[in-house]
Amino acid sequence: MGTSTYSLDIRLNTDSYLASGIQFYISTTPADALTYGATPFTVLNNPFTSGDLGLAPSGGSTVNSGNQSAFFKGGSPDYPAFSTNAIATLQFNTASLAGGTYVFTPVGVEFTGSTSGGAPVDLTTFASPDTFSLQVIPEPGSCALLGAGGWALISFRKQRSRPRRCAKT
After folding, report:
1. Residue 101 to residue 107: CA distance in whole angstroms
2. Is residue 123 part of a domain?
């Protein structure tokens, strides 16, 4: 039996700046085709911890309906600078998706932070968003069942197309 979830790691880079917060959301193509899994957001504790998570989508909610994720540092000091860390894993429910290709795009990534000298800076373009594709294919059991059904239908049609012989009395 195939899996009914898809997981996506979110990797970010603060471009050597200290950071006090981040906010982002995921957009999908086609829109509104996907929902979050039962555990939509797992914090990977580097450098953000689950205690820093101020906003996260709820399980089963539609992905494109304004479900944002946000980490905020409660107090001083800011988060240390980091590069290409996987900070969290998002989980999506794929059980009801039809076969096809779906595109995930992290959007609206925004950091607020400060330089090592303490001057505040907005890091709205710290990294370009990447796009990820998911191709949904039917599970092998479904394919086998469809194949067996097709074979049975062809066999049935062949038997019906043969001329019938009448028994002589």
Report:
1. 19
2. yes
User: Is residue 167 assigned to a domain?
Assistant: no
* 168, part of any domain: no
Per-residue pLDDT tens over the stretch 49-60: 888 898 999 999
Containing domain of residue 64, as a range? 5-161
Predicted model pTM:
0.68
Q: What amino acid is encoded at 66 in this protein?
A: G
Instruction: Say if residues 83 and 73 touch (Cβ distance below 8 Å).
Output: no
User: pLDDT, tens digit, for every residue of 88-119?
Assistant: 899 998 887 887 888 887 777 767 776 656 66
